[in-house]
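Regression test case RT-17, inverse folding.

Input:
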């Protein structure tokens, strides 16, 4: 086939245009804005096979409430248990369903349905809001150490080095956030979301982990610097609207979509959202994978996740070191997964072969 000079020029222009395209698909700027509420229905279905003796379960409920960005709308359930009651932790206010089956029930089951409204968050850190206050009780709660998040020893020493020279609370938070992003990494081999043993992370020099490790480290370093901070344990419930494959649920089955985030209280802004762990998730998982800190997608996530996050996620609670009522087992460091015991033996909530549950999410019309 003969090609005219015009055809050759057009083909050359097309090749040049293709070469000029970015190496990853075009997407919206990662800039969550407030103002549009979304509503989700969460369904948690739990079935325990080959049960014997007394079986119990503790199922986290999405009851964390902050009217500016998340509004729980209640839960209901169906079960063959002899009792199911909502329990509220007296320290953190975390709510969960405590379920007890009759001794000898061989097929314990329950389905819990919860509705939550949520929206994007974005704090403009260039525009202070004036002095914001916390109650003495809240300030104490979110400055105190927990079993896995100490604020003395190596945590305090590391925090002091990071914030040296910082002139304001915002500067301190920013320095800690950047240090965590630069020094931690997401380790795909970590089970679940990690444990959050931050002193061990610092002592070992192995800064690998997942969100419950990386964001807990941010929280501990912030508390050690005198900044109230907290982990929010929750779940991704929808894909990202900004094109990040790694920052959203892949489909309506969200059984393994647990994710914790962090907040720090800054005197001129109130509670400010943070998520250094998701920056490292973008680096590891965003196609084509193993991206450097200099990659455009990473740089954008790093900038945005200091002060904003997307409303395709909901929070269960901020609780640590929970003693599960009726349990003969140890406290849980945090309650983000369903927990269960059979005949006094705690099941592994991350082992689907011994403890089967399915969590689904669907978006409802507002």
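Golden output:
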């Amino acid at each position: 086939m003969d090609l005219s000079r015009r055809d050759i020029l057009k083909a050359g222009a097309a090749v040049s245009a293709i070469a000029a395209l970015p190496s990853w698909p075009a997407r919206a700027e990662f800039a969550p804005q407030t103002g549009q509420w979304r509503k989700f229905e969460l369904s948690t279905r739990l079935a325990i096979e080959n049960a014997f003796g007394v079986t119990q379960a503790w199922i986290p409920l999405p009851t964390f409430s902050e009217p500016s960005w998340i509004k729980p709308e209640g839960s209901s359930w169906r079960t063959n248990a002899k009792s199911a009651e909502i329990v509220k932790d007296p320290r953190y206010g975390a709510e969960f369903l405590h379920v007890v089956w009759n001794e000898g029930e061989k097929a314990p089951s329950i389905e819990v349905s919860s509705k939550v409204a949520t929206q994007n968050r974005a704090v403009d850190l260039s525009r202070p809001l004036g002095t914001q206050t916390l109650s003495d009780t809240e300030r104490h709660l979110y400055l105190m150490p927990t079993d896995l998040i100490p604020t003395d020893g190596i945590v305090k020493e590391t925090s002091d080095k990071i914030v040296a020279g910082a002139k304001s609370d915002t500067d301190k938070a920013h320095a800690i956030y950047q240090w965590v992003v630069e020094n931690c990494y997401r380790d795909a081999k970590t089970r679940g979301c990690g444990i959050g043993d931050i002193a061990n992370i610092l002592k070992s020099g192995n800064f690998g982990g997942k969100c419950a490790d990386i964001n807990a480290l941010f929280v501990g370093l912030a508390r050690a610097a005198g900044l109230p901070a907290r982990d929010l344990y929750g779940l991704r419930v929808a894909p990202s609207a900004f094109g990040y494959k790694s920052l959203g649920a892949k489909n309506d089955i969200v059984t393994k979509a647990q994710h914790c985030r962090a907040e720090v209280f800054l005197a001129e802004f109130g509670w400010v959202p943070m998520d250094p762990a998701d920056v490292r998730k973008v680096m590891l998982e965003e196609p084509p994978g193993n991206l450097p800190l200099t990659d455009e997608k990473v740089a954008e996530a790093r900038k945005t996740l200091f002060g904003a996050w997307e409303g395709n996620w909901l929070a269960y609670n901020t609780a640590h070191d929970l003693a599960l009522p009726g349990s003969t087992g140890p406290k849980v460091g945090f309650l983000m997964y369903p927990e269960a015991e059979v005949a006094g033996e705690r099941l592994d909530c991350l082992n689907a072969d011994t403890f089967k549950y399915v969590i689904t999410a669907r978006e409802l019309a507002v």
